[in-house]
Design goal:
Structural class: alpha+beta
Strand content: 25-35%
Radius of gyration: 29 Å
Order of helices and strands: HEEEEHEEEEEHEEH
Largest sheet: 5 strands, antiparallel
Number of strands: 11
Helix content: 25-40%
Keywords: Endoplasmic reticulum, Glycoprotein, GPI-anchor biosynthesis, Membrane, Transmembrane, Transmembrane helix
GO biological process, one term: GPI anchor biosynthetic process
Strand order of the largest sheet: 5-6-3-9-10
Shape: elongated
Pathway: Glycolipid biosynthesis; glycosylphosphatidylinositol-anchor biosynthesis
Organism: Pieris macdunnoughi
Number of domains: 2
CATH topology of the largest domain: Immunoglobulin-like
Distance between the termini: 127 Å
Oligomer: single chain
CATH class of the largest domain: Mainly Beta
Family: Belongs to the PIGX family.
Number of helices: 4
CATH architecture of the largest domain: Sandwich
Amino acid sequence: MNTFNLHFILKCCCILLFFFVYNATTTSCNFNIKLIQTLHNEGFHRNITYDIDYGAYDGNKDFYEDCSVGLEQVLPAGLFASPDELEELRYKTTTIFKSKVDIEISAELASPITVHLLGTVQSHKTFLSLPVHARYHKSVAGGGYVSVDLPPPLLYINCGPKKIGKCSGESLVNSFCPKNLQYKCPWIQVPVGGGAPLSWKIPRGNTQHHNLVWFGTIAVVCFGSLYILKEIHCHKTRQNKH
């Protein structure tokens, strides 16, 4: 056996040994997490809830207990959440808006909004919620409804580097870590089961009713103005009599 073949065999053995040790020391990262996303109420103002259930990780039922949880939810252009509303209500779910929000523009002029929801794992579960609103859509002939699909969120967890630091797919940067982070990001994106898109049917105006609505609005304004003037006149007349 010549020297070349001997070196080649030694290199192959070293590579096989490396992969054997790597597979033996790394975890399978079978996170065993399920998420149920539900849209509540009716009309233009609704509420999204997220029920996250954490199964056993490598046989440890309490593996996720007290871990931090982050959801990244993208709201399509036809929907929005109000930062002012959440701040005034001091909402129980910590919410961070990653996009600028204009609550007054129509769906055709709006852009998708990215929202981060933060929570913790307690008793193997996490419950998060987000109030959302439908934007007005441009009227069309015949009216009807427009269907807006709400995608499932991305799930991130932070259990500290000692718990999930060995999982493959770690990176220095992701949506929950700044770009100038010098160390490995403590947040890791994990796959979830059960997440499915939600569909929201939003009514839109009928352009064929334009004239009817226009004349109806003018009539209501005119009759309302006449009624107010009549009441003012009657009030002054009664004051003069006294």
